[in-house]
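step 4 of 6: structure.
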Amino acid sequence: METVIILVFIVGYLAIALEHSIKINKTASAILTGVICWTLFALSSPTEAILTSSHFANFLEGLKVDLADKFSSLDQNELFIRFVGSELSHHLAQISEILFFLMGAMTIVELVDAHHGFRFITDRIKTENAKSLLWIICWVTFFLSSVLDNLTTSIVMVSLIRKLIPNKDMRLFFAGMVVIAANAGGAWTPIGDVTTTMLWIGGQISTLNIMKVMFIPSVICMLTPLIYLSFTLKGEIGKPSEAAAKHKADVGGGLLMLILGVGALISVPVFKTVTHLPPYVGMLFGLGVLWVVSELIHPELDEAVKKNYTAAGALSRIDVPSVLFFLGILLAVGSLESMLTLHHFAEYLATTIGDNRIIITLIGLLSAVVDNVPLVAASMGMYSMDVYPQDHLIWEYLAYCAGTGGSILIIGSAAGVAVMGMEKIDFIWYTKRISLIAMMGYFAGAAAYLFIEHLLGKN
Amino acid sequence: MEATVISIFVIGYLLIAFEHPIKINKSATAIVTGVLCWTVYAVLSQESIEDISHKLGDHFSEISAILFFLLGAMTIVELIDSYHGFRIITERIKTKNPKTLLWVICWVTFFLSALLDNLTTSIVMVSLVRKLVPSKDMRLFFAGMIVIAANAGGAWSPIGDVTTTMLWIGGQITAVNIIKTLLLPSIVCMVVPLLFLQFTLKGDLGHSKHQSAEDGKAHRAVQHHDVKGSTSMLLLGVAGLISVPIFKTVTHLPPYLGMLLALGVLWIVSELINPEADEKTKKSLSAVGALTRIDTASVLFFLGILLAVAALDAMEILHHFALYLDEALGDNRIIITLIGILSSIVDNVPLVAASMGMYSLEQYHPDHMIWEYLAYCAGTGGSILIIGSAAGVAVMGMEKIDFIWYLKRISLLAALGYFAGAIVYLLIYPYLAVHP
């Protein structure tokens, strides 16, 4: 049965990777993969490896306490069914934490955008020189992406460069650099990137520590390609057309929403530190406050117009399919974890390759081909926190590699895919012009991280 | 600390109930209430933070299971609707006699609502009644009866109604058993007001002045939107919804997984069924488009309100409240009957969540009388006032039914049906229930 489930997982994975050629939305494939994996797992007979694992023993201990005298009346099959149920419920709680966190963040950003809040940042950028503009765009993307998710940041920044750079050829380079900067900027903060967030929510890394050790590697990861382009980039920004400068109707309140929205996002780690409650609670709190404000600041508008500027309207515009995609893929990975498949895979990797640092560097490169969310989820399942405690080198290095390795190919990160969709960047163009410099940045940052760790003398 | 949390909960509740006068969306209030309850609990409590996090994790897992179930169901229904799948049902109704039509509409609503959620059913049926009943006065009675029939039809099926679904997902009731014991009471709950109207309803359906214009509009809508595959989407969707309880019985996995499976299959079919359509049309006809049209805000409302109730549950406030009620009133049946009537004023989701926290599954086994009776009362009691159920509120919005008009003309009928069904349940459960 384990082999069948692994096969289902691989087929599902291929269907997701080949989304565009087979014309089936990856969310549908992901949901089906997740559900089928768990169904097969629930219908299978328990393997020896699971029954003898310490995990199963712990579960039995807990069940004995809960059921008291009724415990002895259960046979092996009933015990296994209950074990599968408890594993699933455990995974669902963890997955939902990530999903509602994402939903909250996406809604807040959408709400700020509905009020044209980001214009207060974008209106301040006013240079005509291509190279200095590239530097500004990259740094803004870098820091914006450390507060917002990479996807949103790149969408915001690409919408911006569309207004600033009429010349299509030049804009493609900017779009490529936005992808690199967004991924690099997300890697060093707990709220900047899905994978770093997952590690943070899971307790593998702590806020201050990840920011301290990861900032310089992330900066280097972005600066290396940027410096390279400073010497080689040729061409003009082009003349802006008047039509592009036109704005949609503005209802006011943009600055207020921007400050509140960014404030809410930044206060999430603070909330977690004070209350010790999981981060999604803080994110929902921020969303609730913004929602109330968004309903109160436009008393003069009628219901239908007002709805566009409240969270109810924002919720209809956020990308719910991607939330369900995460649900499906994380459920699938969860089933592999509960079957101990990942654990065995890690042991196999560790014995053949030996050095964790090499494995994780490879995971980073791999994340350019496959989605980095399941990769990180899989790695979290592969290594236990008993052996590798919080803020261990492998978790931090994993956050860096999985976060920035995706820049090497345009399909390797959510930011890349979004930019590809918006600017119609060719896969081949990106491979020829950007992949090499992205890889230079990736290895430069990785080397910097390992050097810093060496100096600090940790592990 | 308990007093603080209870005050936050009560204030939050009041703000939700007065959503319209204070003009703050109830989802926003619910989220803030839920978060504040847990925050106060976490910061002020003497318990260790590990215990509190553990409790929150358990509740959150249960809540998410309900939310993803709802999300899946809503998307499937929306997907069928975007293929005009329901038109196949609605086009078959062609009578001109108001009383006959009322019976047909009520029974269709009753069984549709057993499969779909009450809200969707009443929206679909009211859109239909608009086309079939031009006379405004007559239509209001139809709308009122749709609310009663939708709520009655939802009560007896595990997938028909949020509160019955909650009890089913929580393991308090089982699929076959709830259908067996509640079908008859639910029918009585709908038939009693229907019989009453049979004798008192006067007037005719009226002639539409805009009949031709509306036909033209409908015709254009058909041309603009009509897509092949309505029948297959309807059949697949309904089959998907019905297969959820079967999936649960076979695999012993929670229902939301069955719902996601059905959604996944429908999603793929929806992408493959129109290969010649261009990207944009295709998107609005696939689940991606359906997901932008579902009511995501109500999912967050449930999240907030269920988190708030969970906080009260974790602090054992609900348990103490139940003990107090038990001592003061004595009989569970009276308490639950009151909960049903109460559900016409306050939202029934938190009421049922609170009751689930009040009574433990160890003391009251799955399929115990109190769970079944709770499913009936919380499901149908909301019909007594128009603001008492999601179906009522939706119909109020669509048909501009007055709160007072409903109170004068429908409330009494609904209350009659409610008590008649309740009496029938209490009479038959000793013969049908597993744990009388």
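step 5 of 6: annotate
 - Chain A touches chain B through 58 residues (CB under 8 Å).
 - DSSP finds 23 helices and no strands in chain A.
step 6 of 6: archive
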